[in-house]
Amino acid sequence: MKIQEVLDVLKSADWDTNWSRQIYDVEEGWEDKCIRKDREKSAECQIPIKHRRDWIILWEIYGKKMYGTTNAAPNQRFHLENYLQFKLQDGLKLEDDFEKKCYRYIRNAALILYIREIVFKETAESLKPIAEKVVEQYNNDKNFPANSAGKLSKS
């Protein structure tokens, strides 16, 4: 599948899927809430970083305007669209293979499951065991490495 085809799919895609939203809520959303609450005390939330994720800040600056909303949370459609636009600005072409040039490098569990359901057309039911395993890992261990969640999401 070409990058252009992915962008075409996204034009009419949902902002999130059930699974991508659940994972965002226990992964990046939870992390962002802790950091925004108190950067200096983010260690209390067991967050090793004190800086918010770029794509979430970009959502606050541009995403709400793009989607004509003031209260929606960051979503994986915006995340993927911006990731692809960044890659295109950095030298990739619309006709490049999405799986080989982009997808294989993505490690974010919420984004991976969004791509699998929206772009690759896997069913929500088929992704259920994977999504539940990722959510369970985050709920049981807030120090669970994000790259491990990404690997689980691609299994």
TrEMBL record:
Name recorded for this polypeptide: Uncharacterized protein
